[in-house]
Automatic annotation (TrEMBL):
Gene3D superfamilies: alpha/beta hydrolase (3.40.50.1820). It comes from the Bacteria. This is Esterase family protein. It holds the Pfam family Esterase. It comes from Paenibacillus sambharensis.
Length: 246
């Protein structure tokens, strides 16, 4: 992919009101693609850690360049911001805000976007993306709302024991319909988190094994890399091509 910094794309900011979240609202940042036309319809990506995905993952810049070069079809990207102080509480399945966040995502956030932007509403045209805990919560959302979400991008997913338990208990009929793209860095084998030190390589391998045992066939990539945005940023183009080929 060549660098085309002149490519025109639009970033807008929105705030979605919420009856489910304690703070009563959540900030969003949204990329409208080059050549955006409101009479057309577009696939949509919902990113956990929205601010980081835009600033450090450079997903809007990378996607806009790829769209302009004909590598992927035009799409809309919605970054969902998170307060880092309550991130684990929202993203981890045993967190005290997790159920509210998952319900907010499916019942408030997505309808808010669908009412305002020409995004396609069928599961095959919707991608939920996240890194670390954002990757695991994206999978949990898809498992909880299978009629709406099927595509999941998990960059170094934080599949803590509570997440693995969710996968073990998941209905195989739901799991086998998932379209998953999972990456992990081989140097993520002793990463320090707010819950202790974890071997993310082993956790992702176990998550993959559970998912495959239930009929899923994830695109699974292991390569050299650490638990950093510098690693994940490089995975974005391949994932976008896999989910949204032109």
């Amino acid at each position: 992919m060549t660098n085309t910094p002149h490519v025109k794309r639009t970033i807008i900011k929105e705030t979605v009101p919420s009856q489910l979240l304690a703070e009563g609202e959540r900030n969003l940042r949204i990329m409208l693609p080059p050549g955006y036309n409101e009479v057309l319809s577009y696939p949509v990506i919902y990113c956990q850690d929205g601010e980081d995905f835009f600033n450090f993952g450079r997903i809007a810049t990378q996607a806009a360049n790829m769209i302009a070069e004909g590598e992927i079809e035009p799409l809309i990207i919605v970054g969902v911001d998170v307060d880092k102080k309550v991130r684990t509480a929202e993203y981890a399945p045993d967190g005290e805000r997790h159920e509210s966040y998952v319900q907010f995502f499916a019942e408030e956030l997505v309808p808010f976007i669908e009412a305002r932007l020409p995004v396609r509403q069928e599961p095959e045209h919707i991608l939920i993306a996240g890194e670390s805990l954002g990757g695991s919560v994206s999978l949990h959302i898809a498992l909880k709302h299978p009629a709406k979400f099927r595509n999941v991008l998990s960059l170094s997913g934080a599949y803590y024991p509570a997440s693995l338990e969710v996968l073990e208990q998941a209905d195989s009929r739901i799991v086998q319909n998932l379209k998953l793209y999972m990456t992990i860095g081989l140097q993520e084998n002793a990463f320090e988190t707010d819950r202790g030190i974890f071997d993310f390589v082993a956790l992702n391998r176990e998550a993959r094994q559970i998912l495959e045992s239930k009929g899923a066939r994830p695109e699974y990539i292991e390569r050299d890399g650490k638990h950093l945005w510098g690693f994940w940023q490089k995975d974005v183009p391949g994932a976008l091509k896999w989910f949204f080929p032109e």
